[in-house]
Amino acid sequence: MNYIRRYFKISERNSTIGAELRAGTVTFLAMSYVLFVVPGILSDAGLPSADVTTALCVASAIACFIMGFYANFPFALAPGMGLVAYFTYGVVKGLGVSWQLALAAVFLEGVLFLLFSFVGVRKAIINVLPDSVKTAIPPGIGFFLAIIGLQNMGVIVENPDTLVDLGNLTAPAVLLSIGCLILISVLLSIKFKGAILLGILLTTVVAWVSGIAQPPEALFGLPVFPRETFLALEISSLLNWSIVPVVFAFLFVDVFDTAGTLLGVGRAAGFVDSEGCLPGAEKAFTADAVGTMAGGLLGTSTITTYIDSATGVEEGGRTGLTAVVVGGYFLLALFFAPFIVAIPMLATAPALVVVGALLMKGVAQINWDEKAVAIPAFLTVVIMPFSFSIANGISFGICSHVLIKIFSGRFREVSPLLYLLSALLLLYFGLVL
Known about the structure:
Layout: H1 2-8, H2 17-31, H3 34-43, H4 49-71, E1 77-79, H5 81-95, H6 99-118, H7 121-128, H8 131-153, E2 156-159, E3 163-166, H9 172-189, H10 195-210, H11 244-269, H12 281-298, E4 303-305, H13 309-314, H14 320-340, H15 345-358, H16 371-387, H17 390-407, H18 416-431
Antiparallel strand pairs: 1-4, 2-3
Helix pairs in contact: 2-14, 3-4, 3-5, 4-12, 4-14, 6-11, 6-12, 8-11, 8-15, 8-16, 8-17, 9-10, 9-15, 10-15, 11-12, 11-17, 16-17, 17-18
């Protein structure tokens, strides 16, 4: 135990082994939906769902272990939901390419992502972000988490006329989920350790016993070797120039999703310094890149850092031990998937809403009287949930910041790198979207 404390610097970060174990458990439960959502989406692209499940668990575990042991951050990784959807509906179905070629694009994106770290490109991108955008990222993620959580709770539903609307608040599942939200909030307000975890577990038991959610049919199941997807990527087809925009799209979203999550959740954990930078970010990016490469080889889409990590941070996770615990759960999921996927969203979704609320305190740090600061910050915050993308929110914040500076005659306040970055972003939106 002493070795573990020293290795992960648990005492130096004012944490305990118990807190890290709880944080890892909460984080995994909050993001466990990937175990059945991701295979379902990728199966639409033609990938065998059983193969994807194995690839997902192994690639995510590899990335989490690197994040924990190497970077020593409490951030969990898994296939990014936006990138999963883009893989299936934007690339395979939209462009008509094979899923084998799409996997090759994922692998190449991971290689480029890793190479960027050696020349300091990724660190430079984070450091050059305007302060208004950096400050707005945590609240933006908070809104993003909230809309995901409220949707999964059934509180918010789609409406073709008004885009969104209230769901059926009298439905048993919705009422139970709202009860879970209140329970977690009360436990947090009285500073009960393990509030989020206890809320999720109690709600899950009630859902199973009452019949609102289906209990697991089995606790144990043998994993499937991904025979059809393992090393199935078509590397030779990458010579086709038509696939270049796909690789660029994967890379763009991965870079900004990861950067946004690292800064947002890192700020909540107290890792971001006075200059708005995250010391050790390069190591965290490495976990993302290697995980993505492993995913491409095994048979799943781009691995990225998950905003659901904020739930573990709120539970007290401050070291890489949290990420290692999540990685361990992903490996256990290979054998206990029937039990894990039976944990209903109505039990995990309220945790996202609570954490979203806790991330809103960053709004007070934005100078709303300075319009050149307020508007880019506001766009960063609102575009994230409304476009369902952290990367889009950051991009709108950057581009609006640069354009406001240019047309207000303050163009000298913008660094050359930020000009280049905004030009690339505008090019991306013009060519890829």
